[in-house]
């Protein structure tokens, strides 16, 4: 996405690193560049506001649940693959249904599901 206007920091760079900005996982100098960009670019500011609202909603609705460390590691691994432009192996992709997840939040072995 690009607004078509020239900016010191390109719209695509801002949108590619939006969650790093939202989570304050970037150097202050980069945060300042992004803030300047949002002042100049209303489409990116709108996208930032939307993502910020979604993040707050998720935190409010799901922020009290503990995430199993193995699930967190899997998700972070996939995010890193996507950021690096590498394909996510199909064998790693698992769709869970409510019957697959016990009260502890851990995966149920296939034999226990039957």
From TrEMBL:
InterPro entries: Anit_sigma_mycothiol_RsrA, Znf_put. Coiled coil: none annotated. It comes from the Bacteria. Residues 86-114 are annotated as: Disordered. Residues 11-44 form the Putative zinc-finger domain. Pfam families: zf-HC2 (PF13490). NCBIfam families: antisig_RsrA (TIGR03988). This is Anti-sigma factor. It comes from Streptomyces kanasensis. The lineage of its organism: Bacteria, Bacillati, Actinomycetota, Actinomycetes, Kitasatosporales.
